[in-house]
Amino acid sequence: MEPERELRRCTSACSACGRRSRWTEALWLLWQLPSRNLRANVITCNAALDACEKATRWQHGAEMLAAMQGRQLQENVVSHSSVISACAKGQWPQACSALLRAADWNIYTFNSVANGFAQAGRWHAAGLLLSMLRAYSAEPDIVTYNAAISACEDEGAWREALQHLAVLRLRRLRWGARSKNAALAAAEKGLQWQWALLLLEDLQIQNVADIVSYSSSCSALARCGRWQLALGILRQLEESDIQCDVMTCNAAISACEKGGRWQHAVSLLSQLQDRKLRATLVSYNAAISACEKRKQLHVALRLLSALQDSRLTPDVVSYSAVISACEKAGQWQQALALFEEMHQRSVAPNVVAFSAAISACEARGQWSQALLLLRQLQGARVLSVIAFSSAISACQKGEEWQRALQLLKEMHHEKLQPNIVAFNAAISACETCRQWQQVLLLMEELSATSIPGTTVTYTSALSALVGAGWSHGLRLLEKFRNQRVEGNVLTCEAACRLVAQRRDARQLLPLLGQMQRKGLASMT
């Protein structure tokens, strides 16, 4: 076979590898050429470079470009564009460097970089690229601007996206739905639902709105809990000629979930079948979470059952939401049953599921079950302040003050900062069991942190110090007076009992006056 024909066959094979992102095979074909007495030309090298670009193998592309220069092959704009595009997807500084080295760059080269930046979400680099174009006295085209706007999507850089869109308009470049949809997606990620609605309205006026426009707008409203507006967008979509999709419906369900509208969420889920759409795991999870937030345990369980009856498999989000609903309803046994079901179905519980199950046990004083779950959580090396606090509260309700203190020590050992819930539970546990010395130690520990005490803190501590001696109580009373903490009737009662130990009514007068100033006049 003639060398030229064989080289063309090799080039075609490299191109085929490039279309399938099979960069290793493309390079292997290139490296085999010398053994077949063939010399690669720039077209063959470009085909291999294209394969590296599609597979984001920027290092290999850069090495090949250097090899081409070493063999004195005249690389062209296609060579540089392939390497630059590969770099842009992975290493944007190298992309800019390669761009500056390219002798015969053009707008195609710049757009290769811009599209790479868009795929990598490098909006800073995309903005820099536009500045570079102006510095070279070149004019960006619609492809450049679309790529720059798309680069803003992932990071929610909505301001920059809108700025690019404004410049695009000023330059009167012909644009379509893609430009505004990209800006709309950036507004969604940036939680700018007002801008999302304005962009959608503009798209509707120009009659170029598509399903992406509606879906992004609905998602922006869902993220901000604007459920009424999200339902309005869904109605607009149904009134248009555009076919509704499940992603837009899921966004509307999520909006109802965040807005605490469980009835609407469940209704939208049931309407999916009427719209000839199949519910996804996201659909069910959003509806279950809506029920969990409004303490609708029975509905949440029904939805979980419906999810299991479908061809979908519940995940950790599904179970965590229902377990949390059990916790809110005080159904600790149901919570543990679901937790066990997760293990049976090989669904690994996360910290949310553990914390919800522990809280369910805590609500009913099931301290032994709470500790068992906490140990499992620690065994998985997943640490949570909320889980520890709930376990300490369970010990407090079970009058297990020593275990409560032990858990507090473990938090320090695990480098977790106890919150006020943990401190209050430990103080209350010691107060119930008349361990006033431990209460004093806990109050000192709390004072050493930046966490302010609450009404519960001082009420429990003052109650614990009744009968412990006037001097201890006096210091705590002074601290309470100096803190901006609102007392309640229990605080007042504990303080009065403490002062009454001295059998001197005159000591009560300043205290009662202080209580009045704290808004407890009716109690005194």
Short description:
The protein is mainly alpha-helical. It has 30 helices and no strands.
Q: Features of this protein?
A:
524 residues; mainly alpha; 30 helices; elongated; disordered C terminus
Topology (SSEs and partners):
Blueprint: H1 3-19, H2 23-31, H3 42-54, H4 58-70, H5 77-90, H6 92-101, H7 107-120, H8 123-135, H9 142-151, H10 158-170, H11 177-189, H12 193-205, H13 211-223, H14 227-239, H15 246-258, H16 262-271, H17 281-293, H18 297-309, H19 316-328, H20 332-344, H21 351-363, H22 367-379, H23 385-397, H24 401-413, H25 420-432, H26 436-447, H27 455-465, H28 470-482, H29 489-500, H30 508-517
Question: How does this model look, in words?
Answer:
The termini are far apart. 72% of the residues lie in helices and 0% in strands. Residues 57-84, 86-90 and 520-524 have low confidence and may be disordered. The chain is an all-alpha fold and 524 residues long. It is elongated and about 110 Å long. The chain is built from 30 helices and no strands. Keywords: Repeat. This is Pentatricopeptide repeat-containing protein, chloroplastic. It comes from Effrenium voratum.
Series of secondary-structure elements, N-terminal to C-terminal: HHHHHHHHHHHHHHHHHHHHHHHHHHHHHH
Low-confidence stretches: 57-84, 86-90, 520-524
DSSP summary: helix tally:
30
Q: What is the radius of gyration?
A: 33 Å
- Percent strand: under 5%
What is the arithmetic mean of pLDDT? 81
Task: Characterize the largest beta sheet: strand count, sense, and whether it forms a barrel.
Answer: none
Quaternary class: single chain
Strand-pairing-aware structural class:
mainly alpha
Shape: elongated
PPR repeats: 106-140, 210-244, 245-279, 280-314, 315-349, 384-418
Protein name: Pentatricopeptide repeat-containing protein, chloroplastic
InterPro entries: PPR/CCM1_RNA-binding, PPR_rpt, TPR-like_helical_dom_sf
Organism: Effrenium voratum
